[in-house]
Amino acid sequence: MRILIEHLRRTASLGILATLGAGIFGAIAMRSFASIVMPAGTDILAASLPKQFQAALGIDKLPFNTLNGFLGVIIQHPFLLTIMLGLPITLATGLLTREVETGTLPLLLVRRVGRMQIVLSAAIVMALWTLTASVAVYVGIVYGAQWAHVTPLPDRVMTARLVAGLVMLSLSVSGCVLAISTINNERGEAVQWCLVPLLIMYVWNFLASFWPQAAQVAKYLLFHYYAPVEIILQGQLDPQSTIVFAGVGGAGLLIALIVYWRREFNL
Questions:
Q1: pTM of this structure
Q2: 185-197, pLDDT tens digit by residue?
Q3: Would you list the domain boundaries of the chain?
């Protein structure tokens, strides 16, 4: 319990900042919809973007000038993804890799803090701040729409499903980040190993929307299973995506636990 409280204390400022950023983004997005998209009356993105970009964003299926189409785009906005995916990377590398890099981890082990406790505490803290930021996104969208006088107001159940899909992606990435953070000795190196694969997967999934050869590989990447527009069209979370995200996140956590359990640290 002490290590969990300490981890929460150390990550409080970053977690609060990410939560505020996510909530404000949701509110501003609704304000933008009310002031720009609704008055335009036409699908401004469909009129200006090539079909390949429309397919990547999903606005070929849901027009951007509709509320559902707009929500399907902003929930995968790069700024929001940066918050929700950058948060676990910063937290895991700070709580795990940094302890090894600075030499403070052996001191924790000498005090009889279990190795499993350290990893599980980091995982719990990451999950808590991820959920907190996701709730802020939901609140920002729902109450931001009221503040901006959006009509009709976004469906709360559908908005919750969209946010839940984002949470599952973030928790899945969190598992992978945990594994990478326990393997590396330097925080900078760990961050690189986290960011580079994510960027490659994100770009590759975009290319797959109009490049058939890339589509054959994209089904093995995480971002392939993050499809907010499909959640709106189907009215539910995709069971296959849920299984993939849970499996990847759980496997990453298991690897992190095994690595910390078997790894030798210089005391």
A1: 0.87
A2: 888 899 999 999 9
A3: 15-262
